[in-house]
Design brief:
The chain is an alpha+beta fold. 21% of the residues lie in helices and 27% in strands. It has a 4-stranded mixed sheet with strand order 1-7-6-4. A two-stranded antiparallel ribbon has the order 2-3. A two-stranded antiparallel sheet has the order 5-8. The radius of gyration is 15 Å and the shape is globular.
Length: 103
């Protein structure tokens, strides 16, 4: 998973809080009707789920700085060619990220 690679790179700089991403998988349900056979699934995360930022510029002002620092890090470390955003999850265990690229 591309976001996990960036989390590992971010964590290698020893930030005060380490970040991680839940592994996503695709599940096939062949007995379902066409168009409903493929499902994206992730492990359930126990705790208070928070949305830290999104694809359209929203940044939660009520949250800690780690999620925003991670998004900014991906932009800077990729030489401004990519940004991982839509950061959400429980604590610093994130799920369902989005990647914006210049390509």
């Amino acid at each position: 998973m591309y976001a996990r690679k960036w989390a590992h790179t971010f964590n290698s700089y020893h930030p005060p809080k380490q970040v991680s991403f839940v592994m996503a998988s695709v599940m096939t349900l062949p007995d379902r009707p066409l168009g409903q056979q493929l499902w994206a699934v992730e492990k359930y995360i126990i705790g208070s789920y928070r949305k830290h930022n999104n694809n359209y510029g929203y940044v939660s002002e009520a949250e800690r700085s780690t999620p925003q620092a991670f998004s900014h890090f991906t932009y800077e470390a990729s030489d401004h060619t990519m940004l991982i955003c839509d950061i959400q999850g429980v604590g610093d265990m994130y799920t369902d990220p989005q990647m914006h690229t210049v390509e």
